[in-house]
């Protein structure tokens, strides 16, 4: 009987522990594939709205990137690029320079503070 109470208590603790989550603590599965010389990478970028989307994607209008799409709801960024011209590391830095955190880099604090209030997401 005592064993059953311990198992039940452990289950309750696990259940409540699983319900507590920070939206910034998302397990991500970044990936990069290369087909016919074009790399496709996906990774998380934090932001809130369509204005964020415009700023994030705008930071990637550079030589070597053929497509940049950030999904407002899922926070997933998908990039098609020529890795001989620009690296994934530089792409992620470009995003951080305009104030947005991504899996590798924290957004620039000054740029973040200059974002519109609706774009100031909860930082990780």
Jot down its keywords.
Alpha-Beta Plaits; single chain; alpha+beta; 4 strands; 124 residues; globular
Describe, in plain words, how this protein is organized in 3D.
The chain is of the alpha+beta class and 124 residues long. It has one domain (31-119): Alpha-Beta Plaits. It is built from 4 helices and 4 strands, in the order αββαββαα. It has helices at 2-19, 50-58, 88-97, 109-114; strands at 31-35, 38-44, 65-70, 76-81. The chain has a 4-stranded antiparallel beta sheet. The chain is globular. It starts with a helix and ends in a 10-residue tail after the last helix. The model is unreliable at 3-26 (pLDDT under 50).
- The name of the CATH architecture is 2-Layer Sandwich
Give the total of domains.
Answer: 1
For the biggest β-sheet, the strand order reads 1-2-4-3
**Number of E-state strands:** 4
- If you average the pLDDT, what whole number results? 84
Helix and strand pattern: HEEHEEHH
Q: What's the helical proportion of residues? A: 25-40%
How many strands, which pairing sense, and closed or not: the largest β-sheet?
A: 4 strands, antiparallel
For the record, what CATH class applies?
Alpha Beta
Which parts are unreliable, with pLDDT below 50 for 5 consecutive residues or more? 3-26
Distance between the termini: 44 Å
Q: If you compute it from the alpha carbons, what radius of gyration comes out, rounded to the nearest whole angstrom?
A: 19 Å
Number of helices: 4
By helix and strand content, what is the structural category? alpha+beta
CATH topology: Alpha-Beta Plaits
Q: What is the global morphology?
A: globular
**Approximate strand percentage:** 15-25%
